[in-house]
Amino acid sequence: MATTRRSTKRAPSRGRSKSKGPKEKASAKDEAKSPVSKPVSKSTPESKGPRAAMSGSAVKKDESKRSKILTRVWYGALMVIGFLAVMYAGHFYVCLLVALLEVLLFRELVKVRYNTYINTIEETIPLFRTTQWMWFAVAIFYTYGDFVNSVMQNSEDLHSAVVNYKAGPIHALFSFGLYSTTFVLTVVTLQRDYIKFQLNQLCWTLCVLCLTVGQLKYIMHNIFNGFFWFVFPVLLVVINDIMAYVCGMTCGKKFITRPFLKLSPNKTWEGFIGGGIFTIIFGWFLAEFLSGFTWMTCPISIPTLWSPVLECEEDAIFKEAISTLPEQFFDMIPNQLVRFIPGVIEFCENGGAIAPCISGTPHHHHHFELQARVLPVQLHAIMLGLFASVVAPFGGFMASGIKRAYNIKDFDSVIPGHGGVMDRMDCQFLMALCTWVHYNAFVKLATVSVGKILYLFKMLPEGEQAEFLAKAAEYVR
Questions:
Q1: Count of CA atoms in the C-beta half-sphere (13 A) of 6
Q2: DSSP H/E element including 344
Q3: What gap in Å lies between CA 346 and CA 328, rounded to an integer?
Q4: How far apart are CA 83 and CA 98, in angstroms?
Q5: Is the alpha carbon torsion for 441, 447, 448, 449 positive or negative?
Q6: Which of 65, 96, 395, 471 could cysteine-pair with 427, CB 3.0–4.6 Å?
Q7: Residue 311 — φ and ψ, nearest 5°?
Q8: Residue 383 near residue 358, CB atoms below 8 Å
Q9: How many degrees, rounded to 5, is the angle at CA 176 between CA 304 and CA 197?
Q10: What 8-state DSSP symbol labels residue 313?
């Protein structure tokens, strides 16, 4: 029986492509080689240079960084121009600027905790912001009322107003009344369930007042003692800030890998040391430059709305003088090195007499001296420069600690690219206070003047006035 064999060939499926013949393969190769088949890439400026290897996100980040730097530089220049314009307007407007800055500083610092606990405060604590600003008003009224009183006492033309209207006692009375009112209101608004939180807030408010009003109280005295004592410390802090940043960026952690401060991980020893060295060098020449302008060196007694050209007898501190470096300074340096310092004179002892050494004669070394013609204020500039480099930056570290504690980047955004006023003024508080202390300790006792002594004389009873005159006559003899 014959059997039929079925064909084993399968029909080609629709999904599969047929194998290409030799002609088709050749045409495919030619098509691949053809330039038309390649995608045309458009060359853009971003595709060339260092950005060619960057991803899209990296390019955006780079552009954002450049934009931030330009914004920072632009608004920094505007701040400098504005500061110079206010200074040109006169002492009165500089005092107004300082008062405005104190208001903004207090607002930014108390707002830190207010924003953190806003839900608790708004729902449960009455008059919270009112009591905070009342404490600020008490501090400002007492501090600057006392300053105005002091200015009036130092000016003979205003003695009659102070004596006749009893400005001093009235100011003290109103200050105490305002303090008592604020104290009572603070206690009345305490809530039983939130008393611990409210006391913490009160302590923070008083701490902020110490940081701002307390430390900036004497900045007005610096302005009246002469613009030099206001401008020079401000510029020292600015120079230190810039040079510490530059030295940190260029040399940071290349010589000292140990962290400078855990509170601010980006700060480096190289930036801290380099900023200090450059600050002292710049301060030396900056003091000499500013001393050439009477607008900077002349003190004032009463500010006017439009300040005229200032003329005064130049203080000896701004006049060139021969200064002798203490001989103890050279005791710390080997004698062989001291002899190479230009201008150093070696003194020798010969037969009990001390005179400059003469080469070729037997002598016994006694000490070294260095005399130089400098402005005395330049020596003060070194001391202030050291403080601006070593101590003042810790005001900035304190501000960094506050921002870290409350997880904020900047205190505010009133200055684009820079943040808030506190972000720019954090190192200026200590510097202003140091300048006032230095001025009274080493330059001149500003708390005593002829005008103030005359005012106190007028306040004495007639019998004590006669006694004072008699004792003054004995003292003159």
A1: 2
A2: strand 344-350
A3: 13
A4: 11
A5: positive
A6: 395
A7: -135, 135
A8: no
A9: 110
A10: P
Between CA 310 and CA 314 the distance in angstroms is: 11
Nearest in space to 176 (alpha carbons), one of 184, 188, 187, 165? 184
Q: How far apart are CA 417 and CA 65, in angstroms?
A: 11
Kindly write down the DSSP assignment for every residue of 254-277, as one continuous string: TS--S-S-TTSTT--HHHHHHHHH
Q: Please give the torsion angle defined by the CA atoms of residues 358, 361, 362 and 365, in that order, rounded to the nearest 10 degrees.
A: 10
Q: How confident is the model at residue 2 (pLDDT cuts 50, 70, 90)?
A: very low
DSSP 364-423: EEEEEEEEEEE-HHHHHHHHHHHHHHHTTHHHHHHHHHHHHHTT-S-S--SBTTTB-HHH
Q: Name the phi and psi angles at 346, rounded to 5.
A: -95, 130
| Residue 236 burial (CB count, 10 A) | 28
Report the alpha-carbon angle 248-288-383, nearest 5.
Answer: 55
Q: What is the pLDDT of residues 79-125, one digit of tens each?
A: 889 988 998 888 889 999 999 999 999 999 998 888 888 877 777 88
| Paired residues of 261 in beta bridges | none
Name the token pair of 120. 């608790």
The structure tokens 């103890």 sit at: 328
Q: What is the pLDDT of residue 446?
A: 61
Residue 49 half-sphere exposure, CB side, CA atoms within 13 Å? 5
